[in-house]
Amino acid sequence: MSNDTTRLFGLNGVAVVGVEVADDDIPMLALVTCDEQARCCPGCGVRSERPHSWVCTRPRDLPVAGRRTGLAWTKRRWRCLNQQCRRMTFTESLPGIPPRSRLTSRLRTSIGEAVANGRRTVVQSARDHEVSWPVANAAFTTAAQAALPKDTPPVTHLGIDETRRGKAKFRLVEGPDGGEVWEVVADRWHVGLVDLSGGAGLLGQVEGHTAASVSSWIDKQSALWRAGVQVVAIDMCTVFKAAVRDSLPHARLVVDRFHVAQLANAAVTEVRRRVTVQHRGRRGRKGNREWELPNRLTRSAARMHADHLDPMVADLKALPKQIGEPILAAWNCKEDLMDLLALHGTNPDRTTICRLLTAFYESAAASGLPELERLATTVSTWWPQILAAITTGVTNAASEGINRAIKTDARCAYGYRNPVNQRRRARCATTRRARGHPATRTSGRHAQPRKPSI
Ligand SMILES: [Zn+2]
Predict the structure, then answer these.
(1) What is the span of the domain harbouring residue 45?
(2) What spacing in Å lies between the alpha carbon of 41 and ligand 1's midpoint?
C-alpha cells in the first residue's frame, strides 16, 4: 500500500489512506498499518491470525511542511493464540510509534536533539514542539545518553577547575561574642575535569569542592585511562593537589600560569590600596594618579606601548614618596615574575629560569612589602608545579573556556535546581564539537554560512 502521500509522510510501517483538513486548518492524516511485524505478539513473538477489535490512536508527530498535523492511526487489537504466552491480546505497535506512546519516536528524538545538539533550552524545545517540560526533559535525557560516549575518552593532559553553582547564600547568626555574624548556608560548586590535549571537551563534573569528590571520579575510571594521564593542570588549590596526589600519583602536576599572574596583580593592587589609605587617610579618588592607573599597573609591560609605559613610571615617581615608591617597587617585582612566566612554552634552559627566579625573589625581598613577601612565599610553595608549567608549556586555559560555556548554559537556563540535570546539560554543551557538530561562529570570515559553489 504505497502512495505519494505515504512516501511524503515517511513514517515506516504505516500508510496514509486519507487527508482531511478540519475547520481549524489542521490536516488530519488517516493511517493504517502496513507492516506485517506489527501483528507479532510483543510477549512471545508469534504472529497472530485472529483479530480481536479495532482501536484508533492519535499520536503526536512532527509538523508536515511546517504545518501542525494530526494523526489518526486505525489499528487492530489481536488475540495471542500461543498457549504458553501469558498475554491474551495486544495492539499493533511499530518502532516509529512505540506501544502506549503518545508521541512518535521521531518527534521525541527531535525534541531531545534540539537540546543536546542544538543548544536549545528544555523550555524552548518544549514550546517549539508543543509538549510539556517533563516530556522534553525526558526526551533530552534519552538523547544525551545516546549522544555522549559511554566510556571516558582517553586523555594525556587533564585539566581540573571549579565553577560555582548559583549564588552563595548567607544568614545572620549569633556570634561567639554576642554580636551577629554571617554564616554560609549554601555555597555549591561543581568541579569539572577537562581534556586539554585531545579536544574531547568536558569529561565530567563532580559536586562539591573537596579532594574526596574529585578522587572518587578519577578512581571510577579504568586503570588504563588513569595510566594514560601524563600531566594534570590545576589552579593553586590544595584540594586538587591532594586529589591528584592520591588518585594519579604518576602524573605531573602543573599550575596554570594565568593564576600566578593573577596573584601578582592582586598583590600590586593590595599595595596600591594600602599605601593610599595609610598616607591619604582615605580611599583613592579622581585626581590621585595612583587611583587612575590600575589598568596600566596590572597590564604586562611587555604588552604595553612605550607611550603608556614611560609616562606611567614618571607619574609614579612624581607621586609623594610614601605612595609612589612602594607601588613602583611592587610593579617592578610583578614584572620580574611576568618575565619568568613569559618563558612558558619557549623551551628555556635552567640557567635562564634560575636567573629570572632569583631576580624575582631578590626584588620581593628588597621591597620589604608584606604583600610581596606573601606572593614570594606562595611562588616558593608552588615552585615545582610552576616550573613544570614553564617547561612543559601546558596551561589550563581550555578549562577556563569550558567554564565560560558552562556559565553561559546556566544563564540561558536561568539557573538549575537539579545538579544532575545541570551536569548533563553542561556535558552536552561542551562536547558538541567533539561529537561532530560544527562550532558556533559569531565572528570572523565564516560567520555566515558560505553559499554552495555552483
Ligand atoms: Zn504471545
Answers:
(1) 1-102
(2) 5
